[in-house]
Design a protein that fits this description.
Elements lengths: L3 H18 L5 H14 L4 E11 L2 E12 L3 E6 L6 H13 L4 E6 L6 E6 L7 H6 L11
Parallel strand pairs: 3-4
Antiparallel strand pairs: 1-2, 2-3, 4-5
Helix pairs in contact: 1-2
């Protein structure tokens, strides 16, 4: 996948944060620590970037994505005991709403770091990849 090396680097930063802080903090603490770790790893990002949501071409509101990395990757953070389908749906919706090819959902709240790569199935960059890898749409830890 085109962004595999970059998502791997982001996940590595998250692993460093989780191994240092452990679980049990509020999401904002992990967000601040991840920003420091990504800066140290020379990743370009914007934090809490406000993005417009459109419905049928009409601006219906805004959402803030936790991180927008390298102008292509949305990173949504959670600090919950267990990721639920609703969290995955939210991350996938963000990718589609912002027309991004890929995103990461990272959970710092469990004993072990949880992460999921989420793909925008409607993005032109992903059509061929998803066609050749139909299991990519299944939700698995670490995918």
């Amino acid at each position: 996948m085109k962004y595999e090396a970059l998502t791997h680097k982001i996940i590595g930063c998250a692993m460093k944060v989780h191994s240092t802080l452990g679980n049990g903090f509020q999401e904002v603490i992990y967000q601040r620590a991840l920003a420091i770790e990504m800066q140290k790893n020379k990743l370009e990002f914007q934090k809490e970037m406000e993005m417009k949501i459109f419905y049928d071409g009409i601006d219906i509101g805004t959402r803030r994505v936790d991180f927008f990395v390298a102008e292509f990757i949305m990173v949504e953070l959670k600090a919950v005991i267990k990721l639920e389908d609703v969290h995955l749906a939210q991350a996938m919706n963000y990718c589609q709403a912002y027309n991004l090819p890929i995103g990461l959902l990272i959970n710092f709240g469990s004993k072990s770091l949880e992460y999921k790569r989420v793909y925008n199935v409607n993005h032109t960059e992903n059509k061929e990849y998803i066609k050749n890898n139909p299991t990519i749409l299944k939700s698995k830890n670490g995918n």
